[in-house]
Here is the input.
Amino acid sequence: MAFVTTLIIGAGHSGLAMSKHLTDRSIDHVLLERGEVAHSWRTERWDSLRLLTPNWQSRLPGFAYAGNDPDGYMSMPEVVGFLQTYARAIRAPVHTGVLVTRVSQTDGGYIVATNRQTWRCRTLVIASGACNIPTVPSFADGLPRSIVSMTPMDYRNPAQLPPGDILIAGASATGVQLAQEIQASGRRVILSAGEHVRLPRVYRGRDIKWWMDVIGAMDVRYDEVDDLNRARRLPSLQLIGTPERQSIDINALRKAGVEIVGRLMGLRDGQAQFSGSLASQCAMADLKMNRMLTSIDAWISEHGQEDGLDPPCRYEPTDVGSQTRLSLDLEGAGISAVIWATGYRPDYSWLDVPVFDRKGRIRHDGGVVDAPGMYVMGLPFLRRRKSSFIDGANDDAADLAAHLSCNLERTAA
Here is the structure.
């Protein structure tokens, strides 16, 4: 059995950020990674995917994007290269190809069993990611056998899809991006939309992520929001990273020929049942978008930054048409595949410590888990709104590394 003071599970951006802060505090540690560095970025993304954040916003402790396209958006191979370069730059003690099979609690720490060897540690950081397992509704089992059921982790490009039309369930970033790509390939696409977050890619000449950064929207802390559980469940922004910095929303998809329907509520006898609340969901998304734009306008005015910026504007309300279908005979309509862009959840099947709530989520207070010396990184709104982004790992890791260090000093006293 090997011993280390701190063991980090996962060598993505969150795990590497924590590694840098632990190194700066001279805390010995290792990172265990099931594949190579940035494994999920390398193996669980579709071919055309790019980051939703501009390149300049790819910032990690002591490291930042240094290329010649700061306003562009990294492809997945570029993200992998960025993280690999960072791991080498900070000399992260990563053990690759190590699959954690069980974590159990022991006096003064944890026992971590793997496919190679067993480790004992005083403190444990879980940085294995929030998107390990696609969330698929239970009624998906009701799909007719002739129709392919797949998730975004299975999808790579339109060429792999069976001949026929495609139904995509979910209209957050993943759903709208796949709808656009598949429709552009010549397929007929139906997009099922529930709650979503609409924002323009560029507002008043600046990337919307630039505005959210500068006005402090991404730095809002977990202890400053009224309904934290809801904040952590919000869908991802309807954004796409393209050289043209184009916006993507329901209006744009309808103009491209995508049919929009309400949230997919169930399947019965080959019939898909859709919610009738599409119009109200879209109206709510428009309202929230306009609130954000108003906040940006107010910041510009307050700081006297109008010079050189485009004038304020508001965008056309979402138009879903006069009538949307509430049901669909999938086989009769020629649907050959359903893609479930309905979210993800972490995989903690190996964690044999009683730290879960009734929904299987880790109980934690801003990343400090409800177990001595255990921490979690990279979850949505962990400590800040930006927690799950590359740019959010630094601040969260700094906070948790400080807590971890104090914890070690206290238990050693």
Remarks:
- The domain at 2-132+346-412 is CATH 3.50.50.60 (FAD/NAD(P)-binding domain).
- The mean pLDDT is 96.
- The two ends are 25 Å apart (CA to CA).
- DSSP finds nine helices and 26 strands in the chain.
